[in-house]
Amino acid sequence: MYIPRTLRRLKDRLEHRRGIHGALFEPYRGDEVVSLDCETTSLNVAEAEILSIAAVRVRGTRVLTSERLDIRLKPPASLGADSIKIHKLRATDLADGIEIDEALRLVLEFVGNRPILGYYVSFDVRMLDKYLRPRYGFGLPNKTIELSHVYHDIIKWKSIGGTVDLRFDTLASRLDVPIIERHTALGDAITVALMYVRLKHGEAPSASH
């Protein structure tokens, strides 16, 4: 039976807030968000496996690239030519990767209870939850911030008819933000962080589409 994420988060909080990971379930009181991205073998959560995970902290108008997480995992058997064409990660590039258990520990430690920012962030959260739940008994409890929703909400009042183009490259162009190493976890995480800062603290983007 499908359980909405909101209900799952509530159930997880009730069960784990007094446990060893209880701090993850406390309301966040700080001023940071974490831009996070995963590169995977597929866009189908049920069959996809994680190849790399990256995250960078954002504090106010600053993208803290010195405070980042950049993980490569061991190559899965499902790594194929189609996915390699997108993220350029071959089995040899992942030879020194770490195990998923260690990767999850590092992610939880780095992110803490900060809000998670991303482009189609629900996919990344669902991918991590897929591995977290069997091991920890809970999924990521963090608030999420979808970059494309932030963009749309800011410019929708300027848009007269038609649809708003929410493609990654279009957002970067409209916001005058350089795309850094597209389809790498760290590059996408930093680019999303830069776009978020531009949206929150810069001049409102044009409604052209």
From TrEMBL:
InterPro entries: Ribonucl_H, RNaseH-like_sf, RNaseH_sf. CDD domains: DEDDh. Residues 32-205 form the Exonuclease domain. It holds the Pfam family RNase_T. Keywords: Exonuclease, Hydrolase, Nuclease. GO terms for biological process: DNA metabolic process. One of its GO terms (molecular function) is nucleic acid binding. PANTHER family: BLR4117 PROTEIN, DNA POLYMERASE III SUBUNIT EPSILON. This is DNA polymerase III subunit epsilon. It comes from Marinobacterium aestuarii.
